């Protein structure tokens, strides 16, 4: 994105192609002497068998400034855990594989449940949460970064640009969010961001009126990107959503806890592609259909917490306004794609807009039926207050798994 536009709500740090990734990496090596940088990789075992993760490791192996890599491994049995330890062993940095399904980690999970602090069912949110807890328990990182394990177009420069604003002591930022274009196989991708989030935020401002929170979300070029980093100070009080609203939930936490001037978005890639979820029109419990409901609920909950009153009438108006806004934006996306030699299937995208419109009212009904729902995993500050030994015991559990199965 060759521009230098600032939206006035948060800092946008562009890639103007006037320096090199190597120069930034050398600076980070210097910063990392005093500000150690850790990376979290939430992974399913199946991703070890995909095309993306081996290439990601090839790139990470060249990164000189990383202090530690924490891999959260989900849906793995004992043999698969052993395989994962060998798979990640080629990383030259200090690294650890947390086997979330091990008997020891299940005991930690049960202990949390006994305290009324159940982190919920397996999923990306819980995986990230345990990795954050482990990193905090180590007490030696100043910057914590996260990205997904299915990025087909991954380059080490993505991580370098993501963490640079936080590691540089002369910058004021506490949270860094990545953005990029979503293009692959000759198509314009990023369907949920383009067809759900952007028109939904426009529609909400029309239906419920101006809100600073909505302005904040609209300021992000790609609010659903899975790449973000934080300085460690606010992390213990970070509320991780337990559903697929993770990315929007983290931005909502930034809005609640941080000054806008301490949040930035960084252009980390010219082009980005990863595994694409099915739309799942017939099953609202999975795929993009489930994702759209969870994202909508996350936004509704945050607005309600700030005093917005919702009703069935508001959700009906929101559905109609969203539908018109989404179709208007689709015209813009179609023109943009065509001018850049890309394809958009108008029929499929309009069907997706129709599905998302239905799901906005479903999410609204779920919210109205259960407004007291607790969607967040407890913060690590609360866990430590309830059970001061748990974080240390989790470190020991991970180490004992290594000793027994490694």
Automatic annotation (TrEMBL):
Family matches, as InterPro entries: Nucleotide-diphossugar_trans (IPR029044)
Superkingdom to which the source organism belongs: Bacteria
SUPFAM superfamilies: Nucleotide-diphospho-sugar transferases
Name this polypeptide is given: Cell wall biosynthesis glycosyltransferase
Species for this entry: Actibacterium atlanticum
